[in-house]
């Protein structure tokens, strides 16, 4: 029987990762960041000097391995650990243009869906509840004001432009960032991390997640 999936979508720096990780810990589910999969490919494309136009051919030769580890999953691209490179500036500037390429999305989605065969998951991203796993009954969309999201990113020491990634992610033709049908929307602007985790767990309880 496939595992249960809690889908958490939202724009950059809306708190998705921390909230998803916290909810997964409390429920004993596996935490999966779909952004890490796009970032692993973005790192590889930058490494290989590949443009988004060349990506459809390049992606077919890539081997992305998914390993379970203490913090969720780690990713090996062509046998090399991608994890130390996921937040690098070159990765961050490549990721949204690459994520707009349909064949890249297909490659990521196949791997994300395969994870449901073996695990109960909290999966976060931009299109989990709308495209990747739309049949799950547990969908959330987290948002926060642009100012608060920029502040959170700066606090993390992140180097990329959140606003520019949001623009690209929301306007692309394939699987743009959107509020999935049936998703519970939570504005996290004035909530702390524990407050959002509690809000999600409370709704899951009310919706009958066992
Ligand atoms: O969540 P994170 O900031 O790591 O995502 C990096 C980028 O990966 C996003 O800005 C977006 O371009 C892409 N992405 C996506 N669909 C997802 C998750 C991430 O297009 N489900």
Task: Report what the structure shows.
The protein is globular and about 50 Å long. Helix 1 crosses helix 9 and helix 2 crosses helix 4. The chain folds into two domains: 120 residues, P-loop containing nucleotide triphosphate hydrolases (Rossmann fold), CATH 3.40.50; 85 residues, P-loop containing nucleotide triphosphate hydrolases (Rossmann fold). Helices cover 46% and strands 18% of the residues. With 210 residues, the chain is α/β, with parallel strands linked by helices. The model has no long low-confidence stretch (mean pLDDT 93). The strands form two sheets. Strands 2-6-1-7-8 form a five-stranded parallel β-sheet. The protein has a three-stranded antiparallel β-sheet with strand order 3-4-5, covered by helices on one side. A hairpin with a 2-residue loop joins strand 4 and strand 5. It is built from nine helices and eight strands. Bound molecules: cytidine-5'-monophosphate. Cytidine-5'-monophosphate binds next to helix 2, helix 4 and helix 8.
Give the helices and strands, then pairings.
Elements: E1 5-9, H1 16-27, E2 30-33, H2 34-47, H3 55-60, E3 64-69, E4 72-77, E5 80-81, H4 89-99, H5 102-115, E6 121-125, H6 128-132, E7 138-143, H7 146-155, H8 162-171, E8 184-187, H9 193-206
Parallel strand pairs: 1-6, 1-7, 2-6, 7-8
Antiparallel strand pairs: 3-4, 4-5
Helix pairs in contact: 1-9, 2-4, 2-5
The protein binds cytidine-5'-monophosphate.
Residues 12, 33-35, 38-39, 95-96, 99, 125-128, 165, 169 line the site of cytidine-5'-monophosphate (C5P).
